Every structure is written in C-alpha cells, then in structure tokens.
Amino acid sequence: MYQSDCRMIEIKENKITTQEYLEIRAKVGWVALMPEQAERALKNSLYVVGAYEDGCLVAMGRVVGDGAVICYIQDLIVVPETQRKGIGSIVLKELISYVEMLRSKGTQMMLCLMCAKGREAFYEQHGFIARPNYSLGPGMIQYLKDC
What we know:
Blueprint: E1 2-4, E2 7-13, H1 18-27, H2 35-43, E3 47-53, E4 56-65, E5 70-78, H3 87-102, E6 110-113, H4 120-124
Helix pairs in contact: 1-2
C-alpha cells in the first residue's frame, strides 16, 4: 500500500484483467484494441503492475522485452482524474525495480520507453534520457495495419 495525495493506493502485480486494460486505455483516449489483442498483450508481458484506489484501477504499466539485454516500459497509463498526484511515479518505480531485479550483477541492461509528447520531463526526473542526443539517434516507429 502507498499513500499518494491523501489517497491509499494498492499495487497489484500481474492481476489486471483484459477488461480493465481496455477500459483504462479508453479513459486516456488511446487507440482501441480488440479484446484478443489486449489479452495477448497482457499475457506476453514480462510484468504488469496496477495501482488501485478503492478497488478501481487508476494507473498501470507493463514491462516487455527479453529480460536480459533490453526491456521496454509499455503502457504507463494514469487516468486523468488521478494524474499529477504521484501515482504515475509509484507505478514507474515498481516497473524499474522489477527490471533491476532481472539484471544480473555486473551487467548493463537497457530500459527504454516511448513517451507521449509533452511527458518528457516526467521521465527525465526518473533518470531517463531523451533521444536524439549527442550519442543516440531518434527512436523510430512503424504502424502495421490494414489499409
């Protein structure tokens, strides 16, 4: 249990249902997924963490990747009514801690993410480095879909 802005937040690991995932994505206006897609995304994640207030999912995040060389933080979502109250930081710290636990002593592991436009400062305050920069090129994306 965490306390955030006078709220009690319960963290649950790997418990988010497909329906909860679809609903929280809709609350922030993200692209709708087919239920089968959402179910597979959750199932194939290395780690899924949910932040619950009064039994309702108010934030979540996932880690995907190979668990050895590179992991990605995926779908860090905080419902609008609870944004800017520290809940996103709680979820992000849980995700980072999980990846640190995977990393073998004496090794380096990449932890990457693609953030929404305008959210760079949030991630920078948690130690992430914006791209492009002096040594790293820009991240890139390709959307695969039916025409």
